[in-house]
Amino acid sequence: MTDNKQSRWDPVKDLMAGAAPVQLGPMHSYHMANTPRRLLYTFSYYKFAAKMIGQQDGDGPKRVLDIGCGEGIGTWTLAKECGFAKGVDFDEDLIAVAKGNWVEPDESNGIEFSCEDALAMDDEPFDAVVNFDVIEHILPEHETDFLQGMANKLKQFGLAIMGTPNITSQPYASAVTNAGHVNLFSGERLEATMQKYFTQVFMFGANDEVVHTGFLPMAHYLIAVGVKPRRD
Fold it and tell me: Which CATH superfamily is domain 37-229 in?
């Protein structure tokens, strides 16, 4: 079975030739070496967000802001599904990885990355703002500024999707996972907090890569969807 004439693999290989290689940076390299399932979870959460936001419509592509984008894998997912995504992160090394992997030098492919404070940007309003694994790293005294700033970045009927580990799961988390966590939420607290900034809030949970509407105290991860930011 080593004879290529007995296989249809060569035509498949030819079709895949020429794709630019994706280089893992420090964050995802660590995940691949230690907890590769984390990448699966990342894709699952971002795919969920992309489907909630929807594809481009008659007014053009949906404009999505990804706060705390890291190496940009999730931002790329949003751009592919929604039309345009801008990833923002404080970490220059991670942004460099994102630009190297996902931004095509000779053409616009609906994606952009920047190392800056997302809440200080002067962009036009976005259709949606997404952040996963960010709020738990923000000190409680800065929580209000972050959430209000996120809401202010949205259009009148914009959508905010925020994910964070459930506080009930933290006794089982690794030392690396817990090292930067300073602001953990329960499902009840996350819903109540988001209701201060959005007219409607819908709560979801996740166990492994499965996003669901089940019993939140037993979910290891929480996802809140805020609709229509409050302007009062």
Answer: Vaccinia Virus protein VP39 (3.40.50.150)
